[in-house]
Amino acid sequence: MFETFQLAAGGSTGGGGGIATMILPLVLMFAIFYFLLIRPQQKKQKTRNSMLGALKKGDKVVTIGGLHGTIMEITDDIVVLRVNDVTKLTFDRSSISHATSTASDSQA
To answer: What is the pTM of this model?
Structure first.
């Protein structure tokens, strides 16, 4: 009776690794999250920032709301788009979704 109590209380004989077997799955999960979620998002953000930084007067762009226009004026944080011959709208620079063509593309 006393022998079974001692084995159940603390005498594990085949533990094999202990804390390493608990940490390894956490490290693997973090690595999977990094390569599947974090790293692609960082690459996408870097590409978007370089696109926003390369915008210049005359570029044709689309806003995140779907509005198509041509850049008439641009500052560090504000963009004025010409929508048609008369209408000019002011947007934040971060509201530009993507550039459809540049001034040099349309002239060629």
So the answer is: 0.66
